[in-house]
Write the structure tokens for this entry.
Amino acid sequence: MTVTHATRGPQIAELSKRHEALFVLDIDEVVLHFIAPFCELLAEYSAKLHFDSFKLTGNVRSISTGAALTGHELDGVTERLYVEQGERQKPVEGVAAALSRLSAVADIVFLTAMTPTFYDQRRDLLDAAGLHWPMIATERSKGGVVAELKQRWRGPVAFVDDLPPNLEGVRRSAPDVHLVHLMANPDFRPHLPAMPTGTVRVGNWVEAEAALQQIATGA
């Protein structure tokens, strides 16, 4: 049986290349807030996210009964958030200005695991926020995509994500890529699993910009 993974966005071979350095950025909790609008949407379902461990399943519970929402119910909430992301998700503080400055030293590509069905909504949201860099939405492993990008960009490549498993996947597929962890919302940070060795941890875009500038320039 052949397994296919949906992808939308530009082909890697067609991406504009101005620099030898490249920054590959996850979107949810790195470029756009996700946890905060997700919690706001949960309130409309009379549910609340409890930050008891690093997971959603089991931690989202009915306010009235305390019963955990099922995985199917959580998928429905997430899908609604993506449908309505233009009204609900806001850029992480400082991201647009930071990326504008960083684009002088490196190319930038957004890489999101969001279901590619919602590509157009996210593209419109990013463009409205002045975040015009190319975006790839894929169900593929991020490690595989980053490894392919690394073949075109011969200089320093950095990958920024909020989920340690994604960082680990990139480390395995492209071990010479610089890893940066950024999670805009602080509530899950105490429960984060171990990061791959050498991961740079930042808490906001002031710190992220400084780290990425150093990676690209070595200064």
